[in-house]
Amino acid sequence: MHLNFAVEVKGLRKTFVSGWFRKRRVEALKGVDLAVPAGAFWGVLGPNGAGKTTFLSILSNLLTPEEGQVRILGRDVQTYSMELRRRINLSSGHANFLWSLTVRENLEYYAMLYGLSKTDRQKKLEELFHLFDLSPFARVRFEELSTGTKQKLSLAKALLNEPELLLLDEPTVGLDPDVARRIRELIQTLHREKGTTILMTTHNMKEAETLCQEVAFIKNGMIKAHGRPQDLKRELRLGDTILVTFRGNLPASSLESQEGIYGYQCSDSSCRILVDDHRERLPQILDLLTGAKVTIHDLRIQESDLEDVFIAFAQ
Amino acid sequence: MKTYSSLLPSELIKTRAFIYKNWTMAKRNVFTLFEILFWPVVGFFSVGLLTEFAGMQPQMKAFVLVGVVSMGTIQVCQLDVAYVLLYDVWSKAVKHGFIAPVGIRHLLLGSLVVGMARGGAVFFILMGASYAFFNFDFRVPGIGPLALFLFGLFLCAASVGVLVCILVLIFGNRADVAAWSLVSLMLLVCGIYYPISILPEWVVPIAAAIPLTYYLEYFRQFYGFTPIFSNPLAKGYILVLAYLLGEIFLMKVALRRAKKTGLLLKLSE
Question: Do B90 and A99 touch (CB under 8 A)?
Answer without folding.
Answer: yes
